[in-house]
TrEMBL record:
InterPro entries: Aldolase_TIM, TIM_sf, Triosephosphate_isomerase. This is Triosephosphate isomerase. It is found in: Cytoplasm. The keyword Cytoplasm applies. It comes from Desulfoprunum benzoelyticum. Homodimer.
């Protein structure tokens, strides 16, 4: 089974910080066949990092956008369309709980984003929360994108900084897999280098999505290297 380690920097790091992060990461990361790494910086860093990642020659490392417009390019001030991101990133995170909560994104907005991503060849990482998983997943059961990844991301671990127990994550991903069989599912929520191995060992889980612990290149490289050992 292919493994994914996805780092979401959220609203952190300017271009200089981002370049330094990659320089440190490159010195610590050990690529492993079958482990795909994606890092989601802010939009302003994408173009610069797309070049820098190539210069560093990092294997199995791609960039992800943290979000995408639900609309095509055109008269949508402030929006960034999927068509503008292709060529810079391979993945795009959609429907993160922070987008749904603080930016009032609806299920339909997220569905539209997934369609935009797929139309322009970006691999969606669709975030779902346990309490709303049914309504968030149901409109996408027929999406024609076998590469879509589902990120099972409960909100409490973000609020309280305690991960959901591996047992509960196992139950949650079982539910997701019933609705979307054969899709890669990753877990996100307070993963650190100290607890990552427990989650990477879970049957049916294809990897992890990491916020806070991805901000330190050392921690993130450590988790990527652990994924290679599982
Ligand atoms: O996008 C990542 C998830 O929100 C998890 O973030 P966290 O690792 O800081 O809990």
């Amino acid at each position: 089974m292919k493994r994914f380690v996805i780092g979401n920097w959220k609203c952190n790091k300017n271009i200089d910080d981002a370049r330094r992060w990659f320089d440190t990461f490159a010195s610590l990361y050990r690529p492993t066949p079958g482990v795909e790494v994606a890092i989601a910086p802010s939009f302003i860093c994408l173009a610069d990092l797309a070049v820098h990642v190539k210069e560093l020659g990092l294997h199995n490392v791609s960039l992800a956008a943290q979000d995408i417009s639900p609309f095509p390019k055109g008269g949508y001030t402030g929006a960034i369309a999927a068509d503008m991101v292709r060529g810079l990133a391979d993945y795009v995170i959609v429907g993160h709980s922070e987008r749904r909560r603080y930016f009032h994104e609806t299920v339909q907005d997220v569905v539209n984003k997934v369609h935009e991503a797929v139309d322009f060849g970006l691999r969606p990482v669709l975030c779902v929360e346990p309490a709303s998983a049914m309504s968030q997943l149901a409109p996408l059961t027929d999406i024609d994108c076998e590469k879509m990844i589902i990120a099972y991301c409960p909100v409490d671990p973000l609020t309280f900084r305690i991960p959901e127990s591996p047992e509960k994550v196992g139950e949650g991903i079982g539910f997701v897999a019933e609705m979307h069989p054969n899709r890669a599912i990753v877990y996100g929520g307070s993963i650190t280098p100290d607890n990552a191995a427990e989650y990477l060992a879970l049957t049916g889980l294809s990897g992890v999505m990491i916020g806070a612990a991805s901000l330190k290149a050392e921690s993130f490289a450590n988790i990527c290297n652990l994924a290679g050992a599982h």
